[in-house]
Amino acid sequence: MIDPQNAGIGESEVYLDFLGRLSLVARIDRPVLIIGERGTGKEISARRIHYLSQRWDKPLVTVNCASLPSSLIESELFGYEKGAFTGAYSNRKGRFEEAEGGTLFLDEIGLIPLEVQEKILRVVEYGTYERVGSSVTHESDVRIVGATNADLKKLCSQGRFKEDLLDRLSFEVLFLPPLRKRGGDILLLANYFASKMAYECGLEAIPSFTPEVEELLLSYPWPGNVRELKNVVERAVYRSDGSIISHIDFDPFANPFAEEEESTHSLSEERIPFSEYGIKDMEKAHEDIDISFLSRALDMGRGSQKAAAEILGITYDQFRGMYRKYKDRLK
Questions:
Q1: Which residues pair with 33 in a beta bridge?
Q2: Higher model confidence: residue 20 or residue 279?
Q3: What is the pLDDT at residue 269?
Q4: Would you say the C-alpha torsion 117, 118, 123, 129 has a positive or negative sign?
Q5: Backbone angles phi, psi at 213, to 5 degrees
Q6: pLDDT at position 228, please?
Q7: Mean pLDDT confidence for 217-244
Q8: Residue 253 has pLDDT above 90, yes or no
Q9: Are 12 and 179 in contact (CB under 8 A)?
Q10: What does pTM read for this prediction?
Q11: Nearest alpha-carbon partner for 176 in 327, 39, 323
Q12: What average pLDDT does range 244-264 have in this prediction?
């Protein structure tokens, strides 16, 4: 069964619609492709498909194609015979053989070399394959679930993915919604991750977020999706002095010292060259400084006005007032 700690959590309409389509196709013994941005939970979704299928009591085998050199993917998937190449000291099963009767999850399927795609196509079409270094044909009864964040149709047009294989694997294509499209699921997940982290840290009280932090969580674009949210929330919980989370740090790589030096340098030499102003141009110089800080804060907050306000240490209303005043001059 699915581990509840790893199961996807959400109640937004767009996510429930995705789960409904997933549950429907899970019962049909056909290949499935899962398309989604990094950190959206593609492997969790593949596990859900497996455990909701008729193959739930058979093996689920996962292969991360991004972690394997292209020269090793074939032997990893199909196995090899003793002496097939240097270092092949004994026979070895491949992942197709290990997944017999069950599900083979191919993560980052778009990275599989063309010559290996040809062998996968043969498995899908005829249910047979040969180990590397062998002419003995093995039969295979495996359901393939593939996942990627790449545009597979574009890869086909570039000659990097076989159209025949894409046709066979795309019986159903499920698009995982990014976190920024899931509305209230952000706070649902944030509270879940916060509770787990509090337990791990031995904290007695269940953490809660201030309204300001909740607004920041909801307005942030989450390019790293659920994985990024988990890191951000867990970092905030362990750093907090109490059970109320009043500060959130989106970028752990932000160096306050380097930023201060860069800011001073850019304001004094690049963004606001004093030589451009006359002695009576104080008001214009002041406006240019405001615009410079607004622009930098928006860059650091990845476009989020609430995040930019926190970075500048001002209220959201104050930021909005300045933004309305200078929006036509912001880059």
A1: 146, 173
A2: 20
A3: 42
A4: negative
A5: -65, -40
A6: 95
A7: 94
A8: no
A9: no
A10: 0.75
A11: 39
A12: 76
For 295, what's the count of Cα atoms within 13 Å in the CB-facing half-sphere? 16
Task: With cut-offs at 50, 70 and 90, classify the pLDDT of residue 264.
Answer: very low
* Tokens 């860059």 found at: 299
Taking alpha carbons only, the member of 137, 136, 116, 117 closest to residue 127 is 137
Paired tokens of 240: 């907090």
Distance between CA atoms of 281 and 286, rounded to whole angstroms?
9
Q: Token pair 């069950």 is at which residue?
A: 102
C-alpha torsion angle, residues 98, 171, 164, 61 (rounded to 10): -10
Token pair, residue 194, equals: 């916060």
Cα separation, 118 vs 104, whole angstroms: 17
Q: What is the pLDDT of residue 222?
A: 95
SS3 string, the chain, reads CCCCCCCCCCCCHHHHHHHHHHHHHHCCCCCEEEECCCCCCHHHHHHHHHHCCCCCCCCEEEEEHHHCCHHHHHHHHHCECCCCCCCCCCCECCHHHHCCCCEEEEECHHHCCHHHHHHHHHHHHHCEEECECCCCEEECCCEEEEEECCCHHHHHHCCCCCHHHHHHHCCEEEECCCHHHCCCHHHHHHHHHHHHHHHHCCCCCCCEECHHHHHHHHHCCCCCHHHHHHHHHHHHHHHCCCCEECCCCCCCCCCHHHHHHHHHHHHHHHHCCHHHCCCCCHHHHHHHHHHHHHHHHHHHCCCCHHHHHHHHCCCHHHHHHHHHHHHHHCC
Compute the distance between CA of residue 24 and CA of residue 53 in angstroms, rounded to an integer.
Answer: 10
